[in-house]
User: What shape does this take?
Amino acid sequence: MTEGLEILGKEVFDTLFIDWRIMAATAVISIILFLVGIYIQLDKWGRGIPEGATKPAGAWGALKLIISSTFEKGIGHALEVLVLDVLFQRRTYRRRKLEWLMHILIFWGWIGLLILTIVAAAAEFAGPFLFNQNYTYFVGVWNSLELPNNIFGYMLVAGILIAIARRLFSKGKDVQARNADIDWILIIGLLVVVATGFYAQYIRETAGVERTLIEVYKTQAPGFFDNITVLFHEVFTLLFCVAYLPFSKYFHMITAPLTILVNQGGE
Assistant: This one.
């Protein structure tokens, strides 16, 4: 008998590095706070009265306006703006090369880790429910994601280091103007996420632990399961990168692309 969560006779979360109850509770709380934050932001954007309207658009009205404006010139144009102006940030590249590199490293590092996390979470449920396989399916997917996880992690570290260097040593007025406390909160928070993540990986590799069942962790590497560093990393990452996101300046990673899409991008 493993120590995961049983759903409809299938077991999930049986290879986690921390107790699934802690992980699930933190994930649920983080997602709820994220959605609440998104709604609050949409509600703020919807307080204005659109042209031709008699009352504020509200949160849902703001969402509809964003979607309609994004695709106003068609799907093809929207995709062009998404790829060139959002994903590759061509306008920033043409103005400030170093800032572009910093943004690309942080943006793609964060997005890449997010996508891989979603893929891993999907594999957790796809194995037993779609392919009728046990935990080995998830382990195989997780192992295949380890290299890209490391790559995106190093990208995030490089972007953070550039951001720190710019804020400490750059004499440009535009950089100094953005050197606010909230920036440091974001930089330090991301650095904590990445540093604890790599340290947790180091602990696992030093203990010689492969991804397997929780009961095996407890037998082969006592003290690894629910290790305080691993526990802190998992919980802090969810709270900082998900729950805190819509309430912080970090939210510009979402609002900036939306603004570009709504304004139809451009050179």
In short: The mean pLDDT is 86. The chain has one domain: 5-262. The CA atoms of residues 105 and 155 lie 5 Å apart.
